Task: structure prediction
Amino acid sequence: MWADEAALDAVGRRLDEWESSFADRAARARTLSTRVQALTGNAHSPDRTVEVTVDSTGLLVDLRLDEQVRQHSAAQTARQVLATTRAAQADLMRRITAATNETLGDDDPAAAAIVDSYRRRLLPAASPRRDHRADPGTAGGDRPGHAAAADRGAPDAGR
Result:
């Protein structure tokens, strides 16, 4: 089948390089998975009465309310908690993007796909592919009677 040994050796080297690149990509994927699982996102409200931490999936894992929240209405506190949670998720998204790009590289198509996947899950209002039929009216600031974050002062993401 092979005309000469040199061609066969070249094919063998290419297969070895291919196998090595797969092993390298798998190692980087494991490293990224470990890094992302350890990440959290943090934010606090502009008046610092609400502080939120979300885990690597974007779920709320810590909520701290300053005693000054007692001076606010329950509705205002609820809006602050929701807005601050969204800001913590945005902080998490920034951290995931940085970890992914550092681990896989900015120009890696897999990195772009991973970041896009997290973006769709963590920041659904910013995603153009969101299916509003499945969850009508839950895009936060898009609901009637709810001011957008920019209208009431967006929370600050923490580190």
